[in-house]
Prior knowledge:
The protein is α/β, with parallel strands linked by helices and 1017 residues long. It has 33 helices and 40 strands. Helix 1 packs across helix 5 (107-153), helix 5 runs parallel beside helix 10 (295-341) and helix 19 (636-643) runs antiparallel to helix 20. The longest helix has 47 residues, at 107-153.
Amino acid sequence: MPITVLLIDNDREHAQALVSALADPWLGWRVDVTSSVQAARERLRQQAVDIVVCTQQVDDGGAFDVLETLHGVPALILVRPGQEGHAAHAMRHGFADFAVQDPGMNYLLALPAQIEAVLERSTSARARRSAEAMLNRQHRLLQAISRAQAVFIASARPQAAFDALLEELMELTRSSFGMVGHVQHHPDRAPALHVHAMTDIRWDEAARMQTVRRSQDALVFDEPDSLIGTVLASEQPLIADNAATDPRCQNAPPGLPALRTCLCLPIHAAQDMVAMVLLANSHHGYAAEDVPFMQPLLNTVGQLEMARRAQEDRRQLDAELLRTSALLREKSNALHATLASVSQGIVKVDADGKIRVYNQRYLELLELPEAFLANQPSHEDIVRFQTERGDFGMGFELIEATARAYVQAEYAAQGRGHSVPDSYVRRTQGGRYLEVRTCTMPDGGRVRTFTDVTDYLGTVEALRQSEARWRSLTHLSSDWYWEQDAQLRFVRLDGRSSDAVGIQDNSFYGRTRWELDNTFVNDTLWVEHRAQLQAREVFHDFEIQRQTPSGEMMCVSVSGEPFYDEQGQFAGYRGIARDITERKRAEAEIQRLAFYDELTGLPNRRLLTDRLERAVATSARDGKHGALLFLDLDNFKGINDTLGHEWGDQLLVQVAQRITASVRASDTVARLGGDEFVLVLQDLHEAPTQAAVEAELVAQKVRLELNKPYALEGSVLHSTPSIGITLFRDQAQPVQELLKRADLAMYQAKAQGRNTLCFFDPAMQAAASARSALEGDIRRGIERNEFLLHYQPVVNESGQVLGAEALVRWRHPQRGMVSPGEFIPLAEQTGLILPLGQQVLRMACTQLAHWHQQPATRFWTVAVNVSAQEFRDPDFVAQVWQALKETGAPPQQLKIELTESLLLHDVEDSIAKMQSLRQRGVGFSLDDFGTGYSSLSYLKRLPLDQLKIDQSFVRDVLTDPNDAAIACTIVALAQSLGLDVVAEGVETQGQREFLLRNGCQQFQGYLFGRPGPADLL
């Protein structure tokens, strides 16, 4: 048999000789050598050995120092010759044997046999001690079972038996901590352990008292991730010999000792886990054989738990019986007290008609002697007694007609065959009224109540009369009464016919005021009104407009106040409503007469003054200009004198209508009297010059409208206005001063020949005059063909001319060549850009047709810029096509240049027009690309042929990295979309080379030629 020997010897030669003697291959022994006591102790802690051989003395101690760490391992001591007495002393203190180290080391020959003998004696001794310990434990186990049974039989509380069992279990396993309790199962969650007994090993009084209090309320362990939770879930025993590192042992309640070793034993009874024992901190740990050894004692715990449960069930049953009996007595007493205290008479009749239960009030209301009911008479006996006494009248006339036949049948003892009325009323001989109600019971009996309703019926009658008076009052009144519940829904409407206010009953009740159909109130007023209602405030004269079934509008004034129930809780609103349509009409007429001109319906001088003051204040606040236009009809007096005032009035009405149609709804048009009108314009430009331009446009628009003929009673009249204009932006000038200035400007206009306009400010007047003169010159220039085209070439990478861009110029007879920057913006503002654009397009197409006939220029293209107004003209496509047809120009060589902002106005319409012309061969170029805000998603949809890089990017392409990056990006974008790209404004060779190097192959700019006449290209 292999044997492990630990040799403790600091003599290396001796130790080697001893190892050679013991480590014989035939024996199969293993010898470990240490030279010190400390090393030997470390070796014993790390690994078990069968026997220890130790010399008498080593470096750090003697053989006796080793003895205390052996814990039952047999030891043999080696002594020198002459030290036999020391060996005997060592054996008395625990060494199993000794050997004498003779100089020749002959003792090594007998040492193996001596070690085997020691091991044999040690094994026999251990077996004997184990058997004795097992007998002692079994005896102690039987004593524990007997003690627990004796404690329980002695009728002690179950707690005492559990305490005794826990004490025995801890003693048997030599544990320092333990607990025992029953397992409580729950249908909707994991089972829990309710502790009955636990070792009281608290470290301080506060912790001990805390555990005691919790034990009184049944200390519960229900943490599923704990050691106990694991056993509750598996219902199997669990041994944890390294509990300090087991995470399941970390969830113990505060105050419990730290667990080092742990044994959890589930206890079963009747095939269910009913209890659990936890034992912890045994010095020797726990072994699997401990479980079957303690099973008899665990069975006793299970029997005790089942007995405890049975005892608990009996206790609860006894308690429930006592509680039910007490409740029954309480309810019986309460029933008798209730019957005696109610104001109704109550009688219970069984299925045989016998009176079984009644109260004192029953005797009082029916005036029956109590002795008569002592013998439990039948109900028919009671009816017969009352009839013979005359309680129902001679012909039962004191009984309500609906129940009279039934009472008569009861008197004849035949009432059981008749239908029992649920309730009826009868009158007593004393003039009181009793309500009789009957309820049939499941057993065939009946419960009948008698209530004195005399006061109630009197109140009902008084209420009916009051209601009749109220209805008469409301129906005869011009107002009507309404009520709403706590949710502000209508529940009542009395008085004036609901048809008069356009409300039908089926759509009125159950709805709030703002849910009614055909109701019109300003949103702000609705919000304020609902806030009043939420605050439970009284409100007066809330005005609502409604449309009646006939389609007419009516105005209703509503007033109301909240009301509350007897508990002070809000119950709703009630109030009155009144038709104030006629009053509102009268007020509106008064308002019209006070503030509006009776003939034209325009604001009069009073209202004009108010609005002008507001306009001046608004302009001062916003920093924007306003304008005051004073208008007077030319030669109106002659119309009145020759045709009469009726014709003059009709003319004034039409003038008012035309002026109103020519301005915005936010502007004010007023009539001061006679043929004088005033216009107040607001929200004009901040700059005075631009504001004057805007005011002039409005004045010219009004003048042109008033210049149109007037149709009056089959005749046609002509009239012209003179208009004076003054601007305002601050409150420095009073309103009357502004009117005076505009009036003076108007007379200036008349002095200048009438049918014109004049500004009060001479500088503005000069600017307006210049602008007006330029507009006239443009109009005449178009008529006289004073506009001509210059062409700037577009070249390829080799400098070869590919075509040209047509640029309009104006050769004025007096001014000379006028810059496009002067006349193009004015032409766009006045609409003259349309005829000018048509003229430019025709001239460009004529030149294109001429070039097409020449071999050298046959393939040149012409690009024509088109303004937004031209492109949005519904006839634009037709005009382009007509110009091409009339001039014979090839459509494929005409390019129309558009801007990004123009295309964004109406993308779908733009695409449709472009596709229509594209199908006929006309090309499109996107001018000034990169300066607008177009979307790339739109760009890919547009039928374009060419992109033109704006000259603002080309100008600094060699010095500004941003411009260079933008130019390159545009070239790359055009190439990816399959479009040509032209760089505008190329003025230097360096710019051309940079653009050519980055993929641009078409150029336009001063480097290749300035704009000039066609014959110079």
